[in-house]
Write a structure and sequence with these properties.
The chain is an alpha+beta fold. It has three helices and six strands; from the N terminus they run βαβββαββα. Strands 1-6-2-3-4-5 form a six-stranded antiparallel β-sheet.
Amino acid sequence: EVHSPWQPLLLIVPLRLGLTEINPIYFDALKKCLSLRQSVGIIGGKPNHAHYFIGYVGEDLVYLDPHTTQPVGDLDDPEERFTADESYHCRFACRMSMTRLDPSIAVGFYCETEQDFNDLCKSLRALA
């Protein structure tokens, strides 16, 4: 067995995609980033309101509100485990037009292996 020095990597890339509002030239690249296998989403939102973007539909971003609290439960108790599991599901998806996105965001990627990282680098180069 060959020992690899690689450790799993969570890569957060802060970006500024405009001065006071987001430049629409970046919309397609953001959608492609969200489509990559290594994507863990985008942190951003609109001024004074943060969101965690996990996908897109057309020109809308799909997001979760990180300020929504979840009930705590004892995962060893089957009934509480069911209640805790229910709290992680949304009844409807929240959406926001990309044009309303604040230009200061951070895109995130998770690379479990070095090959994941190499594939990510190749995919990101293709976006340029």
